[in-house]
Automatic annotation (TrEMBL):
InterPro entries documented for this protein: Acid_Pase_AS (IPR033379), His_Pase_clade-2 (IPR000560), His_PPase_superfam (IPR029033), Histidine_acid_phosphatase (IPR050645)
Gene Ontology molecular function: phosphatase activity
Protein family per UniProt: Belongs to the histidine acid phosphatase family.
SUPFAM superfamilies: Phosphoglycerate mutase-like (SSF53254)
PANTHER family membership: ACID PHOSPHATASE, PUTATIVE (AFU_ORTHOLOGUE AFUA_3G14570)-RELATED, ACID PHOSPHATASE-RELATED
Name this polypeptide is given: Histidine acid phosphatase
Entry-linked Pfam families: His_Phos_2
């Protein structure tokens, strides 16, 4: 998610367009109301669906398969998540599907406005009234573009239950930090996860404060407003990377065909837009929610619809772009540095607080972000292959700090798990990497003078 100016600006990998507003105040804790559904119903039959499953549902860590290193004590876990399933951000000229988010209405206490007769509760409800003169500009239902769906909330509840089972002893210590980007779906995802966690182990300090910062100074995602060099690198990557140019040439026919079917050539300025992220956004949203793929308005006459083969190619293109932008491309290291480098400093500081035995050290930290929070972090950590694909909904990176027992000196080690399995990298064994080596590696992505490095060159 690249950040530009708006109350909420939500982008998939290098996505430059705006959506609705962030309705939650800075630092506000909001209880989440979700219609419950069994985990079996949510996950039934999805394991066998190959690419669909891989993007639609990240694998969840499981207490039964979670292995603790022998003779070691867990000191800290830093959990980084992507929000759960959401409605698309891009709205097509001819929307023929319905997106429902009504079961995620939020009951919000109004502190400071108590008239002595009890606490007031208000409910936020999104709707698309059929009699609205502009209703044809969006789908029907009760979801704003880019809004967390009930399915997405259930994904996070499931993840929270897993965290509660695995990290009970850390959570019981009461030292918890929660931070989210100032976007509705990431805040709701954090709340849903905490609800799931609290169902497994009681969180002692409540309300749990979900901290945010204004989007214009956010460091958990690429921030194009505060850091214009991000946009410049994006254009340089497309214009100067021979591999990217070749990729676009190979896929030109597919892009034109998609524009013809969906009516998006003028809407998205496709002649100058050099990415498949918007197509990915539309197709992934529909695929993950069992909705029909887009068809042209004249379908009854000529049968023009996006095919499953086209959808598979779009998924492949999205994975390729993610790898190229944040891991393999000529500008990847600089892009990662100016996008999330200062946030990596924050993560490093959390670990050093344990190394130095500070009294205010945090035992469990949760960061709720986007695909463009997770993907740059994976790039910084050196992920490769399928682990560097476009991060699925509810993706989770667990950075664990361990103390080796039965030794005379203080030996600290780091383990990194991604969607339930060890992260495979070349520079260190992230199932047991020394803290010093880990800090040295991520340190190369921490900017010296971020404001200066963000200027146009």
């Amino acid at each position: 998610m690249l950040i530009t100016r708006s109350s909420v600006i939500v982008l998939s990998v290098v996505l430059f367009f705006f959506i609705g507003s962030a309705l939650l105040a800075h630092g506000l804790y909001v209880p989440l109301v979700v219609q419950q559904e069994s985990d079996q119903t949510l996950w039934e039959g999805r394991e066998s669906k190959g690419p669909e499953f891989a993007y639609c549902h990240a694998r969840t860590p499981d207490v039964e398969t979670y292995k603790r290193p022998k003779d070691a004590k867990l000191l800290q876990t830093i959990a980084v998540i992507r929000h759960g399933d959401r409605s698309p951000i891009a709205v097509l000229p001819y929307e023929n599907v319905t997106w429902e988010c009504a079961s995620l209405d939020q009951n919000i206490p109004a502190p400071g406005f108590n008239n002595g007769r009890g606490k007031l509760q208000t409910a936020l409800h999104m709707s698309v009234p059929g009699d609205n003169p502009f209703s044809a500009a969006i789908w029907s239902g009760s979801c704003a573009p880019g809004q967390l769906t009930p399915k997405g909330a259930k994904q996070q509840i499931k993840l929270g239950k897993a965290f509660g089972d695995i990290y009970k002893h850390l959570i019981r210590k009461g030292s918890i930090k929660v931070r989210s980007t100032d976007v509705w779906r990431t805040q709701q995802s954090a709340e849903a996860l905490l609800a799931g966690m609290n169902s497994r182990v009681s969180i002692s300090r409540q309300p749990v404060v979900v901290k945010t910062v204004p989007l214009r100074i956010e460091t958990m995602v690429p921030n194009t407003e505060a850091c214009p060099r991000v946009t410049q690198l994006w254009h340089d990557n497309q214009g100067q990377d021979v591999e990217w140019s070749s990729y676009l040439t190979r896929n030109e026919g597919l892009r034109k065909r998609l524009d013809e079917i969906m009516g998006t050539e003028e809407l998205w300025d496709s002649a100058n837009y050099r990415s498949f992220d918007r197509y990915f956004d539309v197709i992934a949203g529909r695929t993950c929610n069992n909705k029909p793929l887009p068809c042209s308005p004249g379908r009854a006459i000529n049968g023009d619809c996006v095919t499953s083969e086209m959808a598979e190619q779009i998924f492949e293109n999205g994975n390729w772009e993610t790898k190229r932008l944040f891991a393999e491309g000529p500008f990847a290291k600089e892009l990662v540095t100016i996008s999330i480098g200062d946030w990596l400093r924050e993560i490093r500081n959390l670990m050093e607080a344990h190394e130095q035995r500070n009294e205010d050290r945090v035992h469990f930290s949760l960061y709720s972000g986007h695909d463009t929070t997770v993907a740059p972090l994976l790039g910084a950590l050196g992920a490769r292959g399928r682990q560097m694909n476009w991060p699925p909904y509810a993706s989770n990176i667990l950075i664990e700090l361990w103390k080796q027992a039965k030794v005379d000196h203080e030996a600290l080690f780091v383990r990194v798990l991604y969607n339930g399995e060890p992260l495979d990298v070349e520079w260190c064994d992230l199932s047991w990497c020394s803290l010093s080596e880990f800090k040295k590696h991520i340190g190369q992505f921490v900017p010296v003078e971020l404001v200066k490095e963000c200027q146009l060159q």
